[in-house]
Amino acid sequence: MMLQFYRTKGLCKLKKIVWYIQFELPAVLRYCKSCGTKREYMCSGQFRVNAQRKHLDIWLIYRCPHCGATWNLPICSRISSADIDSDLLERYHNNDRKLAAQHALNMGLLRQNGAIPCAPAFVVSGENLPSGEPVELHLTCEYPLPVKVSAVLRQKLNLSRRMLDQLIENGMIKGAPEANVLKQKLDGHITLTVQYDATGL
Ligand SMILES: [Zn+2]
Known about the structure:
By secondary structure, this protein is an alpha+beta fold. The protein contains five helices and twelve strands. It has two domains: 89 residues, no CATH class; 90 residues, no CATH class. Strands 7-1-8-12-10 form a five-stranded mixed beta sheet. It is elongated, with a radius of gyration of 22 Å.
């Protein structure tokens, strides 16, 4: 016998809208010796792999945008060449973007190495919200990002902080029951219920 399952959310199914968040690898704030001041070092997305005898060192390279000085974020230090998977090593050699993002977004690793991670620049793409109609809004990104959900909403809807606060207070933007939309970060797939009327603001 075939069993059919129906998933219902409320009385009617809401229109589903997906927004994609694309980001740049975040810069880090560090003291630049050549400039003599703190600078936002840009992440090059490139790795430096150094093999000496049977040992490997791997770094992710950052650059000061003012003087070009480099800073290397240590990824692996003095590991045995036999201990690293050959496919993984190949990805480091090829400056694999996913690997670069994985390390550039590792806040703990950055802080341990004396760098203060900056918030990554991001772009939101996806359908605009229909005015006045409640929708189920999905925010998706490739990696958990240290970016607030409220920053994504403000950028895409062109809202001031006060306008966004008002929409949340009035229940026009709702997150998961236990989530605080104003404080929540893009730490995975986020689903919101939004009823947005641009003319009512
Ligand atoms: Zn510099």
